[in-house]
Design a protein that fits this description.
Length: about 240
């Protein structure tokens, strides 16, 4: 039996950094993903109460920090002292890493000119801050590596605004049919992200209107199968494992 073709760094996106091995959405997880060979890394962004961007997925601190407070109830200076725990998932691999500012992650990425950082604007932000405020803060935080950034979001409207300001953008699909609705998708989108499970059976992606990044796939054979069916990239929690597969 022939040896399966090795997956390349250009085919994979590290979802929340190297999530399988390190606390997700942290400076540590991003650094380790890049160290493992990732050249495409995705992170999530929430905002502090004082309008600063932090790298975090949930609108509250309970799942990752055991703290019931909303992230919007705390300032940036308070948030960056709070430990992110993954002991239940990682066991002895848990660390004392804390919540990271987006600016700190951007400074790390700026040291690797061949790395693309996909920054997901979480929809909860837009219930607390208007689009202009959000995009101004992202511009400030990401200024050091602007050309390496693709903004992504389930909120299509803010991506239209971002694209008009010169950002590269990539919608995250709410549903499969959105891909073919030109009124929803920014015309010059760099890519779209979508859950591979929403793709209709038997569909290939070779003729999709935008390059498709599929999540969440941690199995190398499944990743290869979707790449053969036209996926541009595979987003995975197991970046180091897939690169070694």
């Amino acid at each position: 039996m022939p040896t399966p073709e090795k997956l390349s760094p250009d085919q994979l996106v590290a979802h929340r950094g190297w999530q399988r091995r390190y606390p997700e959405n942290t400076l540590l997880a991003v650094d380790k993903a890049i160290g493992a060979g990732a050249r495409h890394v995705e992170i999530d962004v929430q905002f502090s109460g004082d309008g600063r961007a932090v790298v975090f997925h949930d609108p509250d601190l309970f799942r990752k920090c055991g703290d019931p407070r909303e992230i919007y109830a705390l300032t940036l200076n308070e948030l960056i002292t709070i430990k992110i725990s993954a002991a239940e998932r990682l066991g002895s691999n848990d660390t004392d890493t804390v919540i990271s500012s987006l600016e700190d992650v951007a400074l790390l990425v700026s040291n690797y000119s061949d790395v693309t950082l996909y920054v997901e604007i979480k929809k909860e932000i837009l219930g607390h801050f208007d689009n202009e405020t959000v995009l101004d803060e992202l511009e400030r935080s990401l200024a050091c590596c602007f050309d390496q950034i693709i903004l992504i979001s389930f909120d299509y409207a803010i991506l239209h605004e971002a694209a008009a300001l010169g950002w590269r953008v990539g919608p995250v699909l709410e549903q499969w049919q959105d891909l073919h609705d030109p009124t929803l998708m920014p015309a010059a989108a760099s890519c779209v992200f979508l859950d591979y499970k929403i793709i209709p059976a038997g569909t290939t992606l070779h003729d999709a209107p935008f390059p498709c990044v599929l999540y969440e796939i941690d199995d190398a054979d499944l990743a290869r199968s979707w790449l053969q069916r036209g996926a541009a990239k595979i987003e995975t929690f197991a970046i180091g494992e897939l690169l070694a597969a």
